[in-house]
Amino acid sequence: MMRTTALYVLAGLALVGCDRLPSPPATAPITPGTAARAASGAANLVVNVTDDTTAQNETPIAVNPRNAQNFVVGGNDWNYNDGCSVNASLDGGRTWTATLPNGFLPGVTKYTNDPAVAGTGSYDYGGDPAIAFGPDGVAYYACFGYQATPPYNVALLMSRSTDGGRTWLKGGAAEPLTQVSVWQGNGISKGSTGQFPDHEQMHVAVDGTIYVTWAQFTGSSSHSPVYVAVSRDGGRSFSFAQKVTSGSVRSDQDQRIVTDPRTGYAYLTFDNSIQGGKGTAMYVSVSKDRGATWSAPVQLGTFVNPVCLFPPYCFNISGAPFRGPGSYPAPAFDPVRNRLYVAYSDIVNGRGQIFLTWADAGDLTQWTSPTVVAANTAGDRLNVELSVEQSSGRVDAMFYDRGYTGNTLVDVTYASSADGGVSWSSTRMTKKGFDPAQYGVPSGSGVRPFIGDYTGIVSLPGGAAMAWTGPGKTYGALPTNYEIYFGSATP
After folding, report:
1. What is the dihedral of CA 244, 250, 253, 259, to 10 degrees?
2. d(C-alpha 358, C-alpha 366), whole Å
3. Distance of alpha carbon 45 from alpha carbon 41, whole angstroms
4. Domains identified in the chain, total number
5. What confidence tier does 3 reach under pLDDT thresholds 50, 70, 90?
């Protein structure tokens, strides 16, 4: 859940990889889930997934390739268990498994949502959720576990579900989760003195190969190499992690992997600060042997002025500050046109905008000049997520959008292109906007405005499904009830 740079690490942030404090148990009553049609049209469905009393943020989404009605969403869960949340739907997103009391991944923290019932994990809190389905319909969930006391160990854990995300491995000795993070060779993942793994991402190829990638901040330097671990046995074990580095440049992060379903080639994108700064360039590396080796990274583009929403260190858009997604490359592979697309946000001419660039998969050294996605400069656009419908090549994108309210409030926009990014249609998914500076997550006795660092989108033949963070009903005096929202839309 923590996206930062070595600059912030060297500034002495304590437990920078954790970014959480345990929250008290929720005692307010739970209201039933609600579904509504988006203001943009009757074909679009929007549902409050979590509908509880305490916050969730950072919202990956996955769809079952064997059942297009089966979705799973994740999140950082700020309820008493302080771990990773999980909700599943078997009816196309209209209804979801309940958040309380059991809507969290077992086996991560020492807690459940009942103070009288112990959890099956060994960590004090968890975060950075990543979700994917395998080709056989098995769901996978990766989540970090954090230790709040010395030696501040951090572990990257993986669980599995064989019933569409309704139940997961129990954790503990009975059904232990798999530890992915063994990059130092001794199985120890330290989180002290600024050393920590960050923001893992997961991708499952059509042959069942599971890729998990993360950035490893060293804490003692400004270097943060990207690592990739691979499983070929359904997440029961992982290979020794491979380090993918850009050589003399520094501070790699925001890593993502996608694959070509025809060749099995895997493409890894990330951004890099080039010896200082924040995410000033983007890179790509390819593996042609299912993650055993990776090519030397190639620079695919640069940022003009990358969005940086990390107060008090940076906040470079207008309005009251809040912690939110910055600029990072979001890749998607198009097997119809044989292209690797990358979308990203960048501040150009005083506005955060969404850009798209692409390269033919046969030559990753030649990238197109960036073009604006669904051009609109009425307000800042942030946090793009990208997906491609594999049979048609339709490109789907979602992003936070302040263009509906004179650059004041945040909404969600869905945009799609049927011609490889030449032209776009777009629709407003949210019924009304909100100001992320006025909501947040529990932080001691107060509130920290933290909308989360990423959202999620998946493409389907008839449209796209997506998940994002939005405000819910306030319980008590503090507005600490971010919710996960699900939306489905047709182009």
Report:
1. -30
2. 8
3. 9
4. 1
5. very low
